[in-house]
Amino acid sequence: MAYTLNELGRTLRAQLAEIVTGGDATAAAAADSFITWCTPGMPMEESDFDFAAKGLGTGATAEEEKRLLQQAYVFSTLVDFIPDVSGLLSIDKQVAVFRTSQARLSHMYGEILRLSKVVDQELSPENLAKLERWRGKLKTTRKIKDFITDEEKEVTEDSPAVAAYNKYFADFLAARLEYNNKRIQAAVATGAEGKSAVMDWSSNQPLYRMKVSQAEGNWAAMGYRNEVEQLWAAIGQMTARSMKLWKQRLLESLDDSKIAAVGPGQTFQYAMPIPGNFANAKGWTEYKVYSNKLTSEMEQKSRSWSAGGSAGWGLWHASAGVQSQSSQYTSDFSVSNFELGFELAQIPISRAWFYPEFFMNRGWTLDRGRGWNYDQFPSDGANPPKGNFVGYPTSIIFARKINIKSSEFASAYRAHTSSLSTSASAGWGPFTMRGNYSTSESGRSYESNASGESIAVPGMQIIGFVNRLVPKSPNPFPDIPAEAFE
């Protein structure tokens, strides 16, 4: 039976979304998470993350330190965005096309902090001391030398407890990703090829579930999960009575975390992937989808994820920042046999300067026209939401070792790319199969190996982001009088 590229893409998108943000009672994700798919994917090299694996300040030479600093700038800028949900298919289905609002997350977060009016009911010296002690358990500062001026400055970083929280949270995500993937592969299995997936799940499901439970237990025992989340809750409860000091500390943390790279104007708020060595670490999950696994159940499910419409997944090409779909190999192009395999990883993003719990607090507000001169408030909390800070990326979906087996698809891809210029990128869905390593110092390009019935895509690439929605903001308690805000 033949399937169109769009049907294959829709099923792929449904399965991956189920793996990353879905799940059963054992491995469910947060309901306010949603995926934005990259089209095209963003090719990366393992060495692009040396800054996170080694750490800033570890360069043996000035040249090496400049390289690490530039990598940190590129990555931090890449994830410094607010997702644009105007292309959101459905909050219930938790999937959208990757767009950004063109506003930087760090800038808008700073604007919200600076222009907000907060409750100021004086806290006792005892409670102030508690706040200071609690904050010291969440964030820490260290001195680094400015590369340009040689002056020492303090930067804010995650405390050891929060660093452990993030590390074991990443391990939990990897275990949950594997569990969901095995469950989905068994659910859609058909024919002789699918027998191993069904047998694997029926025999090893308790072991996969145990890995999730163990990772969650390690997160609690060694990752300070309960302690860190209790501190967040306690700070939120106390600062709901008086947020003035807390707001000031958040602003200081934001200002202190700025780092300057060597290029003109390259000042940025530092962000890093967790773990820093993820590109070489274990935890990547193998994923496969076959055209003969498009069972009626999965096909129906994949159609429901496309509610509201979406761009078709035909062969595309991009040149000079402009992307277009092939007029010949559109989303309606059919293939009879298709197999896609790759390794998948979901990597959390750490931003020591960003406190999303501020948006959970109901002790602050904004006055339009009195400092807040934007057309919209951060978020109206609707479904889908409107505003200029409706969400933020929490993790990145990476794919590597991408391999497509299909004689018809490979033939169509070769015919499609033969007419393109050597500088044009090309791909299908969220996968870039020919293009440039735009973040690489070498600036090298790459070409998929399309021979016979298969296409092997080199390297790894970002194919999407998992984002978290911000609740209605501002949303002060109605019983707080206006004069209580300063």
Protein described:
This protein is an alpha+beta fold. It has one domain. The chain is 36% helix and 25% strand. It has twelve helices and 22 strands. The protein has helices at 5-21, 50-54, 62-78, 105-115, 125-138, 160-187, 195-221, 225-239, 244-256, 296-305, 357-360, 407-418, and strands spanning 3-4, 33-44, 88-90, 95-97, 117-118, 139-145, 152-158, 258-260, 267-269, 272-273, 285-290, 315-319, 322-325, 334-335, 339-350, 364-365, 391-405, 425-428, 431-436, 445-447, 449-451, 454-469. Strands 2, 3, 4, 10, 11, 15, 17, 21 and 22 form a nine-stranded mixed beta sheet that branches. The protein has a five-stranded antiparallel beta sheet with strand order 13-12-18-19-20, with helices on one face. A hairpin with a 2-residue loop joins strand 12 and strand 13. The radius of gyration is 24 Å and the shape is globular. The chain starts with a strand and ends in a 17-residue tail after the last strand.
Poorly predicted segments: 89-98, 295-310
Shape: globular
Q: Helical element count? A: 12
How much helix is in the residues? 25-40%
Cα(first) to Cα(last) distance is 67 Å
Count of distinct structural domains? 1
Brief overview:
The protein is an alpha+beta fold.
Key features of this structure:
36% helix, 12 helices, 9-stranded mixed β-sheet, 5-stranded antiparallel β-sheet, globular, 486 residues, alpha+beta
What topology does this entry show?
Blueprint: E1 3-4, H1 5-21, E2 33-44, H2 50-54, H3 62-78, E3 88-90, E4 95-97, H4 105-115, E5 117-118, H5 125-138, E6 139-145, E7 152-158, H6 160-187, H7 195-221, H8 225-239, H9 244-256, E8 258-260, E9 267-269, E10 272-273, E11 285-290, H10 296-305, E12 315-319, E13 322-325, E14 334-335, E15 339-350, H11 357-360, E16 364-365, E17 391-405, H12 407-418, E18 425-428, E19 431-436, E20 445-447, E21 449-451, E22 454-469
Helix pairs in contact: 1-6, 1-10, 4-9, 5-8, 6-7
